[in-house]
Design brief:
By secondary structure, this protein is α/β, with parallel strands linked by helices. The chain has 13 helices and 10 strands. It is 42% helix and 22% strand.
């Protein structure tokens, strides 16, 4: 289900003045892509993704989801929000029902889906995020750990069975294990169902490992866009826009500076380890080791 953004402009009103947040965004997101959106604080990332299911409507320009213009007053936003699921930063703040089962069921019930189908979706969604429906389902969501609450909130969106999953800093505030768990569930979900994923994150290592393509925002504009490896290869431009590159990319650059032929597009620990092992197992690497 493609998403097309054309000349998108949006400003927040505040008394007599308005604050521009998006200033002419052009962007296309194709079926099955895993797209990362990065940029410094205040660059417009959260504002942009809230346009993808009609929570915000453009001041100017268009957002087309599966051919439907979300600015059209006659657009069925309820149907769009079923197709495009949005998980906010700190999604546990979206929890409000007495039990986990009721919370996860809230969305599909509002779509007038038959109760037996709702139950199937709830069970499937909880299992997808690594929670046991029989154990966790009857409990209050507010009695769970922070990581569990985060997964329940994600399950509530997955129970809608969206074709596009939009995630605004889904791992923010979690400890390293919690971050690995929630992002691992998202990665598996994309692999198993082939859904489109749009991820907003400040963590360069995470977007390097997960995404196929990056969109870099600054001051409400797209300043850089392309395959993840190519974007991280432009470290000077990223620094100019208040961003860094993955630590492994910096390490690879330093090794190249010292004369080691490490590929320029290394972005993960596994890739760096493989490149270094290949280098040291080569005749030139062995000669260096014995020098």
């Amino acid at each position: 289900m493609p998403i097309l953004i054309e000349k998108l402009e949006y400003a927040y009103s505040g008394g007599a003045e308005s604050t521009p947040a998006l200033a002419g965004i052009d962007l296309a997101i194709g079926d099955g892509e895993f797209v990362g959106i990065i940029g410094p604080t205040g660059s417009g990332k959260s504002t942009l993704v809230q346009h993808l299911n009609g929570l915000l409507r453009p001041d100017r320009g268009r957002v087309l989801v599966d051919g439907v213009d979300l600015a059209d007053r006659h657009a069925d936003l309820r149907a769009i929000r079923q197709k495009v699921g949005l998980v906010f930063q700190y999604p546990e703040h979206q929890l409000f029902e007495e039990t986990v089962l009721e919370d996860v069921a809230f969305g599909p019930r509002n779509l007038a889906i038959p109760p037996d189908i709702v139950q199937e979706r709830v069970v499937r969604a909880l299992i997808t995020v690594g929670l046991d429906p029989a154990e966790i389902g009857p409990r209050s969501p507010f009695a769970l750990s922070g990581g569990q609450m985060r997964r329940v909130a994600l399950a509530g969106v997955l129970a809608m069975e969206p074709q596009v999953l939009v995630l605004d800093e889904p791992a923010a505030g979690l400890d390293p294990r919690g971050r690995r768990d929630i992002l691992g569930h998202i990665q598996r979900l994309r692999a198993e169902r082939g859904i489109t994923v749009v991820l907003v994150s400040h963590n360069m290592e995470e977007v390097a490992r997960l995404t196929d393509r990056l969109v870099v925002l600054n001051a409400g504009r797209v300043v850089l866009e392309g395959p993840t490896r190519e974007v991280f290869g432009q470290s000077d431009l990223l620094r100019q826009n208040g961003l860094g590159v993955p630590s492994i990319t910096r390490l690879a650059a330093e090794l190249r500076r010292r004369g080691m032929k490490v590929p320029a597009d290394v972005v993960t620990v596994e890739e760096a380890a493989g490149a270094i092992l290949r280098l040291w197992s080569s005749p030139s690497g062995q000669a260096r080791a014995h020098a």
